[in-house]
Write a structure and sequence with these properties.
single chain; Four Helix Bundle (Hemerythrin (Met), subunit A); 2 domains; 3 strands; DNA-binding FadR family transcriptional regulator; DNA-binding; GntR_C
């Protein structure tokens, strides 16, 4: 077997195992099989199977474990790795700040509209805890979570939550450090949003999201223009 065909076979084995993990409900901690069992199953050499294991480990699907009950064991995907990879791809694609703001406005409004009708007192308490933590952060770009990421999680829509997290991750990389007055302005919009949700006023909540995003977009545009004209990076 040539090196190229060995890599192809390893990739095929990894893809088949990955598909089976997904079909089985991604049960973290369960064993896919021992190295020798997978060699027998696929009629592959040890080196090919180990390459398949390496592929699965790099994709955070499964990892080899030694000892009793070991073999290839299903693992949980690492969200931070997913966010970093998605962000790198968007960097490569040449996204713009306008792309980011436009998408975040759509996603955050979708989250608000979905949560507004069903939000509970416990949900509101959780959002207020997030507001308290947000108020204590020196730079909001690096807050571990925001009202908007928490709202996305409250939708129970993992796709929406993931894309809001990706947008938040890109904002950390490309956002301009806000001044103290700007941080207060951003935080006040978060407070207004939670107050609107507590009052059951979905329209006011949506308007708050739009004001915040469009204000951030104008600020980014003005600051970028100043940097371009002065040569400041």
């Amino acid at each position: 077997m040539t090196a190229g065909s060995a890599r192809t076979m390893a990739a095929d084995i990894a893809r088949q195992i990955e598909n089976e993990v997904v079909a089985d409900g991604w049960r973290v901690g369960t064993s896919v099989g021992s190295e020798s069992a997978i060699m027998d199953r696929f009629g592959a050499s040890r080196s090919v199977v180990r390459e398949a294991f390496r592929i699965l480990e790099s994709r955070h699907v499964a990892t080899p474990r030694r000892g009793p009950g070991g073999g290839l064991v299903v693992t949980a995907p690492d969200l931070s790795t997913v966010l970093d990879q998605a962000s790198l791809y968007l960097e490569y694609s040449g996204f713009t700040a306008d792309d980011l703001f436009q998408t975040m406005e759509l996603l955050e409004i979708a989250a608000v509209e979905q949560v507004a009708a069903t939000i509970s007192r416990a949900d509101l308490d959780g959002l207020r805890d997030t507001l308290t933590a947000e108020a204590e952060v020196d730079d909001l770009r690096f807050a571990p979570s925001t009202v908007y990421t928490e709202l996305a999680r409250l939708t129970d829509n993992p796709v929406l939550a993931l894309f809001v997290d990706i947008g938040n991750n890109l904002s950390r990389t490309h956002g301009i450090r806000p001044s103290q007055s700007e941080q207060r302005w951003i935080h006040q919009h978060s407070v207004d949003l939670v107050d609107a949700l507590a009052a059951g006023d979905a329209l006011a909540a949506v308007r708050t999201v739009r004001r915040r995003i469009r204000g951030l977009r104008r600020r980014q545009s003005v600051t970028s223009t100043r940097h371009d004209s002065t040569g400041v990076q």
